[in-house]
Amino acid sequence: MSETLNLLLLATWQTVYMVAVSVLIATFFGIPLGVLLMVTDRGQILQNGLLNKILGTVVNIFRSVPFVILLIVLIPFTRWLVGKAIGTTAAIVPLSVAAIPFMGRLIETALREVDRGVIEAAQAMGASPFQIITRVLIPEALPSIAAGITITTINLVGYSAMAGVIGGGGLGDLAVRYGYQRFMLDIMLYTVAILVVMVQLIQVAGDLFVKRLSKNR
Fold this sequence. Notes:
- The chain is an all-alpha fold.
- The chain has 9 helices and no strands.
- It has helices spanning 2-39, 49-64, 67-73, 75-82, 88-112, 116-124, 129-163, 170-180, 185-216.
- The longest helix is centred in the N-terminal third of the chain and has 38 residues, at 2-39.
- The chain starts with a helix and ends with a helix.
- Belongs to the binding-protein-dependent transport system permease family. CysTW subfamily.
C-alpha cells in the first residue's frame, strides 16, 4: 500500500506541476492574445482587419487540432526547446501551446461583454487605447477573465492525463503503465478519483474567486 501511495503522490505532484506551469504560461500569453483579438476587430479601438484575421486564423488552426495529435506534431519543437520530448517538463510545452489559443478566445469573449458605453465614455474623456485596455476593459472584465482561467485550468487537467499516454508523466502516465498495462484496477480507480477531486477543487476555488471579484467591482 505504501508503494501505491508513493506512486500516487508523485503522479499527483507531477500533474499539479504540469498544470500550474502551463496555466501561468497560457495566462501570460493568452490575455494579450485575447486583448489583441478584441481591440483589432471591426469597430474596436485599434481596428486592424489584417492583423485580426491573421491572429484569428492561427488561433482557429491550433484550436482545431486534437490534443493527442498536437502532442506528436510538437515533438521536434519540444525536444529543441527543453532538450527532450518525453517527461513532465516536456509535456508543459504542448499543454501551453494548446492552452494559449483556447484562453485567448475566452479572454476575447470576456472583453466583449464590457459595456460599450463605458468604452465610449473613456474615449470621450481622451483616454488612449492603452489606458482604455488597462483601466477599463481588463478591470471591467476581471470576473469573466477569472472564469476563463478556471475553465482553462480544468481543461489542462484533462490534457495532462492525455499527455501521460505518450510518457508525459503524471496521473495519466500512472493510469496507463499500472492501471492498464499491468491490470491494476485499484490504481486506475485511484487516479480517476484524484482527477475528479482536483477538478472539483479548481472549480470551487475559481467560483469563489469570481464571486469576490464581482463584489469588488
